[in-house]
Design brief:
The chain has 493 residues and is an alpha+beta fold. The protein has 17 helices and 13 strands.
């Protein structure tokens, strides 16, 4: 066969026919090359373009074709090219791990480094380094432990996630799971939830939160779940190495023998796999078909999920069964953040008839969801940024403005414009315009007070600030369509 950059030639005759008068069927005709499997893992679409790996597509097709079989040959997909692509997809300016190696240093002798890393991965000599732990303060006063992984661990983890884990489990995960999946984001989960509340018979909602989910994952159960589809022991050993690598904090190594390292590239996929077997399949195949009396739906984004019910008895029964289900797998619900509330158009109508106040609100993915009345007097779902998150963001902006008090005004204005643009890009949904306007107005008030403290000579006029804002800040407008419109485009036929 010809080279990788050339087309395969057909088979041509080597001898001519004996007689010219012979029938054409007896002539020594040529024929095209036989069809068969590709001999190379990567193919070139044109001579001037780079090779494209076919491993991901082949793994996905195998998983769909054999939904119950294990995949026993996977590690060979982690080639030097896959490691190189993984390295270049990493961010360059991230903090270094315990080895102290940064992106620029590793790039200086990239070919030799990747060849050595590839050899160690395939011979079993690769050893995962512990993560460097950093405690991030949380809004409730606590801290969230974040692990900074070593550079080589990031390279191998990203290659394994993109080449092996993602194609396998994207064919396994259910549709109501949205967190950390390609082509799915937080607004997809919000659209599904809004569409379900508006179109389904929703009267009760279970707002659940798993306490310290990433720190409580049982590693033995996680490996058992992975072995349902992954039969290559080399890949399983790689994942075990990452789980047991531990963390370095204040110069001391420690490992709680459970949980997955937060901040690692492989952690979101492993967390999704764990909840896929613990929660998703249990709800979809066992609980809803056999115990739900009315309609029930669930929307999950990583470890945050909301479950909607038609009847109160179903919501109470589900919450009781959920506690028992999670307890089998070393998980538990947060008692202060898990509750059952009356919510939806039927709850809104019933409470209006009895003269009661509007139903309670609940928070999901940064938005407070509440019941509202539309202009024509019908039920509508309202969404706005969570108040605590707004106040926390304003506090950070105020602290940064104090640090930049004597910087150039237009540089600060452009920086604030980027902050506002990012805020509008996520929170700019219908029914949140008033909250967005209030957020921008409060930023302007904070900045104006700080500008007037820069000098004792005179006061900074509000008219001058308005002129700067008009030139440097984006206009306040809704960035996202109504949830039912986007949901209909993406899901309904």
């Amino acid at each position: 066969m010809n080279g990788i950059n050339q087309s395969d030639a057909g088979i041509v005759p080597l001898t001519a026919a004996n007689k010219e008068a012979q029938v054409s069927a007896e002539s020594n005709e040529g024929r095209a090359a036989t069809k068969g499997n590709l001999q190379h893992q990567s193919t070139c679409r044109t001579q001037g373009r780079e090779s494209v790996s076919q491993a991901v597509a082949r793994i996905r097709q195998t998983v769909k074709r054999n939904p119950k079989d294990k995949l026993t040959a996977l590690l060979h997909h982690i080639s030097v090219d896959a490691l190189c692509e993984s390295f270049h997809s990493l961010k360059k300016n991230v903090a270094a791990g315990v080895d102290g190696v940064i992106w620029e240093e590793y790039e200086q002798e990239l070919d030799s480094h990747l060849a050595d890393l590839h050899r160690r991965v395939h011979t079993g000599a690769y050893r995962a380094l512990p993560s460097r732990r950093v405690n991030i303060p949380k809004a409730d006063g606590g801290t969230r432990p974040l692990g900074i992984t070593a550079l080589e661990d990031k390279i191998v983890q990203k290659a394994v996630v993109e080449m092996i884990l993602t194609p396998i489990y994207e064919a396994e995960f259910l549709g109501f799971s949205h967190g950390f999946r390609p082509g799915r984001g937080a607004h997809d989960a919000l659209d599904v939830l809004a569409y379900g509340i508006m179109q389904r018979k929703v009267n009760w909602i279970v707002d659940a939160d798993i306490r310290a989910f990433f720190d409580r994952i049982d590693r033995d159960w996680l490996i058992r779940f992975l072995e349902h589809r992954i039969g290559d022991r080399r890949v399983i050993r790689l994942i075990i190495k990452w789980l047991n690598a531990g963390v370095m904090e204040s110069g001391k190594w420690q490992d709680g023998m459970r949980g997955v390292p937060q901040g690692a590239i492989v952690s979101p996929v492993l967390a999704n796999v764990y909840l896929h077997y613990v929660l998703d399949l249990w709800f979809h195949k066992k609980w809803r078909p056999h115990k739900a009396r009315g309609q029930a739906m669930i929307v999950r984004y990583a470890d945050d999920f909301v479950v909607c019910f038609q009847y109160r008895q179903d919501a109470q029964q589900f919450l009781c069964d959920l506690e028992q289900r999670l307890g089998k797998f070393a998980l538990e619900l947060h008692p202060d953040k898990t509750r059952t509330i009356e919510f939806g158009r039927f709850a809104w109508q019933d409470r209006s008839v009895h003269g009661e106040s509007r139903p309670e609100t609940f928070d999901f993915l940064g938005f407070t969801h509440y019941c509202r009345q539309t202009r024509n007097g019908k039920f509508g779902l309202g969404r706005k940024p969570i108040t605590k998150r707004v106040n926390r963001t304003l506090s950070r902006i105020k602290a940064e403005l104090r640090r930049r008090m004597h910087h150039d005004i237009y540089d600060v204005a452009r920086w604030l414009g980027q902050v506002i643009r990012g805020w509008l890009g996520y929170y700019g949904v219908p029914t949140s315009c008033a909250s967005l306007s209030s957020f921008v107005h409060r930023i302007k008030s904070i900045w104006l007070k700080l500008l007037r403290r820069r000098s004792q000579r005179g006061r900074f006029s509000a008219a001058r600030l308005d002129h700067i804002v008009r030139n440097c800040w984006p206009p306040i407008k809704i960035q996202h369509p109504w949830p039912n419109e986007r949901f209909a485009v993406r899901h309904l036929r």
